[in-house]
Amino acid sequence: MITRLEGSWCLVLGASSGMGLAIAHELAREGVHILGVHFDTTDGQEKAAVAREEMRGHGVEAHFFNANAASARTREELLPRFEELTGGTGIRIVVHSLAFGTLLPYVGAEGEDSLTARQMNMTLDVMAHSLVYWTQDLFTAGLLREGAKVYAMTSAGGTRVMPHYGAVSAAKAALESHVRQLALELAPSGIAVNALRAGVTPTPSMERIPGSDRLAVHARDLNPHRRLTRPEDVAEAVSLLSRTDSSWITGNVIGVDGGELLT
């Protein structure tokens, strides 16, 4: 059954920039109340505050929390606050859009640092494992109910590799595996879990990848649309997929790339 999103709640992990921010804006325009978690310096916090007020301009509630989304303590502190803010209605949409990890090579060239165990573990914990921990705690707290949707942002890195992307690629592969397992375990509760595989998208996290400018040119030439994916493309996909109570679309890696991987 197709339903309206107006009046429901969305939690965005990584809400202050890139895809997370675009999704929060799109859903606010649709009348969805926003809970945003981000981890920023003073400049990032100021931008997040501006975005929050813009969302409130659509007549919805918007609450942003500057905290480490990969920390167990953050979950412990925020979940009671989420329960209070949502007033017992639960969270309809959860978006995991955390992009924080190392870009060091596994085996550095002469004079170049190599990836350490600590950096590998941090990358996988933030970009992959935290999805599991948030979903566990939200479900246990009764905030995820029948009809809820959980989305994780992945990339072609889940199956492909490139220089400097090894740890992130491993995290994306793990993230997709977590999505499948969560989909299996939450299906009896009517909760859908999917990964959205965006195409190459100009975001602050992409700009940190060495050679990202060449990657962007290559992806634009490959894409049948002759342009890169935009954060707004992903936001529209979340809005579209969330308009049903059905959990029958679950456990998938859904391409939102304009056909980038077709050619």
From TrEMBL:
It is an enzyme of class 1 (oxidoreductase). It holds the Pfam family adh_short_C2. The keyword DNA-binding does not apply. Its EC number is 1.-.-.-. GO terms for molecular function: oxidoreductase activity. The keyword Oxidoreductase applies. CDD domains: SDR_c. Keywords: Oxidoreductase. InterPro entries: NAD(P)-bd_dom_sf (IPR036291), SDR_DHRS6-like (IPR051122), SDR_fam (IPR002347). It comes from the Bacteria. Belongs to the short-chain dehydrogenases/reductases (SDR) family. PANTHER family: DIHYDROANTICAPSIN 7-DEHYDROGENASE. This is SDR family oxidoreductase.
